[in-house]
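Appendix C reproduces, verbatim, an entry submitted by the partner laboratory led by Prof. M.T., so that reviewers can inspect both the input and the predicted structure.
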Amino acid sequence: MLSKQLLIAIGVTAIAFCNGFTNSRSARPMRVKATAAKSDSLASSPNLSVDSNFVVVDDPEPSAAELTNANMLRIILSVATDQQVNELVWKCLGYRRVPSTRTGPKNTESSVEWDSSKCFPKWREKYPQPPDVIGVTRIYSKEVDGPSMKANQALVRSVPMEYKQGIRDQLRPEGFNGFSLDELTPNKTRRAQCANWLLYYREALFGVSLKELVRRKELQRNVEAENYELRKKGESIKTAGPENERR
């Protein structure tokens, strides 16, 4: 059973989207990157082990191979680096790498910029550039870690209630029993939160166009407004079905 501490750290409320998980990109060529780090050993999950091959697909779009339960375990068990976790979350949020050449007064510097045009609108408005949701410095003072903490909290809040126990539902069958209290660290907590968000993305958003997601969200908002008026009148409420259509 997952520890109460981990579930509390992950649990949040937000607006739900319907299931849009597809495997449309699973056949794309993969670039598998093996990290040097070995997986953490957890006393709370003694039989759990994963290899060190964190899957990174050389494609600007998210892929099913990057969103497997095994890859989520590699995030939680610190096989993936902090930056790899950041970049997978960024990719799923809609950020895309844009190679650019910056010309300075003395030389030309190659760099990478990020395009946010495919991000969820409200997220893009708040974060036009991808934020550090892990805290790569691992310095947890308010001055250094404050922006990362707020970005991580914003990510956590975006997970709907029905997906808040994604790690329990998806990874417990794989042998992950959660963290014991003495195993929890700020980094491990944020990794678990990012993995939970990625599981939500996989189950509810992956393969669905941004236009369709915006349509569903607007429909959900309209249904909620109608239900508010119906409840005031004592009438039965409406629901949004599997494809967010009124019933």
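The first strand starts at residue 31 and ends at 34. Additional entries are available on request from the coordinating office.
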